[in-house]
Amino acid sequence: MRARVVRAALALGLTAPLLTGCFEEPSPHEAVRDFLVGWQTGDYADAAGRADGDQAAVRKALENARLQLDAASIRFSLKGISQDGEAARAAFHAEVDLGENNPLWQYDGALPLHLVGGRWKVRWSPSVIHPDLHAGQRLAVATVPKGRRPILDRAGNPLQDETILHVAGVTPAEVKDPARLCEQLSKITGFAQDRLLSRVLSSPPQDFVPLATFGRTKFAQLKSKLEAIGGLRFEIDNAPVAPKSPTQIVGVVTAITPEAEQRLGGPQRAGDTLGRDGLQKAYQDQLTGSTETRVVVLDNATGRQVKELKTWPGRENEPVRTTIDSRLQSAGDAAVAGSRPAALVAVKASTGEVLAVSTNQLHQERDALAGRYAAGTAFSIIAAEGLLRAGLDPKQKVPCSSDRTVGGARFQQPGVDGVTVPTFQTDFAQGCVTALASLARRINGQALGRSAQQFGIGSGWKLPLRTFSGSVPAAQGDAAVAKIIAGQGAKVSPLAMALVAGAVKSGTWRPPTLVTSPAAPDPAAEEAGGSPAVSPASLDPAITAKLRTLMRAGVTSGAAAPATAPGEPVYGVAAQVTQVEKKERTRLSWFVGWQGDVALAVLVKSGDPEAAPVVAGAFFRGAQPQA
């Protein structure tokens, strides 16, 4: 209420100079000024004193007009005054702020005046308020709410199930004491009493006016108190808002709270739903649209509409179409199920479209899309691109030892006794840290950085949700380069590594896509803007062919063998790395690879080096097309 008083005062400060010239009786100017300023500022007694009707009735009519419009403010400007003897006419322009993010309602009106006992008076009738308002009629604001639209998978199927919401509201004509009802509802719900009341008073008397929406649990808690409020009615809304998998990507929808209503203003109102996280939050504005609003004249006796004075169609809401493949999502969910924390991201290699995001004991957005994890030898895919570009032959013998020092930095390879001298292809397939680190002198830090950038690492791409594109520290000297080749300095997310796999498969790195429509999220969302202008990057075909050979060996004869599955050949690498965060050591198992056009990254918090490849194999088997 205080905000409205301030707004009215500001409006008066801006327009009063238009109405307060040096007017003197018997000119009608002073009467016009007193009436319009009194009406504008809410000093209805002053305005009524300049009308020839019953002052109490005039005062009540002006006050009701503001309530019936639920007006945040009313501003007037004087267009001109004409006088003909003892009669006059003042033309004015009105701007009514209907609040709730609606446009201003603007109209032109007129004040008929005549001399009464030597003083100018406004000749009172309802048409003084609006030219189309007559005796026995009232103003009202009719709204046509739009149901929340769904979030869809790539096939157009909803990623939500219906859930029961309880909507508490009133039919104004049936409420004997709306002020009392709104006072009681405010005490129970926390919604501002004056906002509830203005909603009731401004609505057509025969319309159901939703005032508050409750989920099943909250309604059960408050049911007895709510049912004790005389005149309050309840309707059930089977809203499609319960998220299906990937639940944390889709997001949770809740009934709007008093705090959210105060924070957001229009178009959300008490009784509406609000996306709390995920895509439901990022696309709140598009999913809900804005309410159609009409200013109408109603017949007091019947409540029927007599005339429509103005309408705003509102902004159409629309569904959010995603790239999620529900069949692959189910396969991912089944693959990560178990006792160990895990995250899986699948993308379409040829497009960068996100197909599935599955987690167990990890968060789909914070960990799978935006997690910052040590890459370990999974980063060898990127390092190998740089090394091959520098002329390394995959058949070259590169010793794999249990322990090796490069530039003063020590590297260890578990499970190796003494020294073996396999080819680089075998070292790559087995993820031999000491062999990879030993190649530090074959490439410098700048070249490694260029390779990382070519695979989108650290390139700044985004989704409508939080993401992490990866980071690679600048490397000077053999020790620093060796650490990066071995993946000890690089940080990546499962999403970033799935895109790396997709790039090797397709020959082109592409930024990720999660939503195909609308083009951009709600501007007020935390991650508004979607992907910036990050262009796809074509890889060298000859180098890419060698990388594919290396990654196929990772499955046929390397550490990624548990990812084997029927159907098209599986390609990939497996890695294990220890991540230290805040002095806490966590063993991570990685798989990065693809089958067909589905590129995959799996992260498992486990000391078992086969943990991630096992999950990958389960996914690929579960993702096989149904016969």
Describe the structure.
- Helix content is 33%, strand content 27%.
- The chain is an alpha+beta fold.
- Strand 26 (570-581) and strand 27 form a beta hairpin.
- Helix 12 (326-336) packs antiparallel against helix 21 (611-622), helix 14 (380-389) crosses helix 20 and helix 15 crosses helix 20.
- The two termini are 65 Å apart.
Secondary structure elements and pairings:
Elements: H1 2-19, H2 29-41, H3 44-48, H4 55-69, E1 73-84, E2 87-97, E3 104-116, E4 119-122, E5 137-144, E6 151-152, E7 160-170, H5 178-189, H6 193-202, E8 209-214, H7 216-227, E9 233-243, H8 247-250, E10 253-255, H9 258-264, E11 273-275, H10 278-282, H11 284-288, E12 292-299, E13 305-312, E14 320-322, H12 326-336, E15 342-348, E16 354-360, H13 364-369, E17 373-374, H14 380-389, E18 400-401, E19 403-406, E20 409-412, E21 419-420, H15 424-430, H16 433-437, H17 445-454, H18 478-485, E22 491-492, H19 494-506, E23 508-509, E24 515-517, E25 537-538, H20 541-556, E26 570-581, E27 584-595, E28 598-605, H21 611-622
Parallel strand pairs: 6-14
Antiparallel strand pairs: 1-2, 2-3, 3-4, 5-12, 7-8, 7-9, 10-11, 12-13, 14-24, 15-16, 15-28, 17-22, 18-21, 19-20, 23-25, 26-27, 27-28
How can the largest sheet be summarized?
A: 5 strands, antiparallel
Number of strands: 28
Low-confidence parts: 1-24
Q: How is the largest sheet built, in terms of strand order? A: 16-15-28-27-26
- The gross shape turns out to be elongated
